[in-house]
Amino acid sequence: MRSLHLEGHRAHRIGWLRASVLGANDGVVSVSSLVVGVAASGAAQSNVLITGIAGLVAGALSMAAGEYISVQSQADTEQADLARERKELAEEPESELAELTGIYVKRSLDHDLAHQVAVQLTAHDALTTHAREELGITDTLMARPIQAALASAAAFAVGAVVPIAATYFAPAKTVGMVTSVATILTLAALGALAAYAGGASIWRGAIRVTFWGALAMGVTAVVGRMFGAVV
């Protein structure tokens, strides 16, 4: 007896994975950059900590709002396309059937078989079939604005906790250094985790995320040191 061939695809993770990775990465990088920049200017540790907390709250709300607006725009477009397709199916079913047949012909089916497949799928669920084949809209990849907004905000807050905790527990004279090290390690872990969840190279993901995070902290540290005053 042949064993079942089970495939582990990851497409169903795209919606929440993208929002979560973006939010966590932004939380770590943004708040770490703020903390390191303010610390480099010579600010007191308490001021650096307050800056980090303010960055967490503002950043999480900003991420949620931005992600919701962006994904809702995509959802509005999808709903408008579906409404148009629903109307066309009701008013011109033969034309829509011919269009679907043409799609399958372009995918290398002969015309008779393509027509047979189109007829059967149309009878089963015409709108879902046309949404998938003609518009590229599927339930798995459909825009979910609230899910994306909550995932982004939560992930940002979780990511921002790292530099805030490092600032709180670090000796006053080494706040910038301790925060930077904690951030680099966290970014490497985030990059590796995201790559693993998406089925990509773990090392490449870790290096990519870490590089840009280190660059952001380096630039803000230089700016903070240039001003050289408590802010």
Describe this structure in words.
- This protein is mostly helical and 231 residues long.
- It folds into 2 domains: 15-72 and 146-224, no CATH class; 84-135, no CATH class.
- It contains 7 helices and no strands.
- The protein has helices at 14-40, 45-91, 93-106, 111-135, 145-169, 175-198, 202-227.
- α1 runs antiparallel to α6 and α5 (145-169) packs antiparallel against α6 (175-198).
- The longest helix has 47 residues, at 45-91.
- Mean pLDDT is 82; it is low at 4-12.
Key traits:
single chain; 231 residues; mainly alpha; 2 domains; 7 helices; 81% helix; 0% strand; elongated
Low-confidence spans? 4-12
| Rg for CA atoms | 25 Å
* Percent helix: over 70%
The span between the termini is 73 Å
> Could you give the count of β-strands?
0
**What's the helix count?**
7
What overall geometry do the principal axes of the alpha carbons give? elongated
- Write the element-wise H/E pattern from the N-terminal end onward: HHHHHHH
* Strand residue content: under 5%
Task: Specify the biggest β-sheet.
Answer: none
Number of domains: 2
Mean pLDDT over all positions: 82
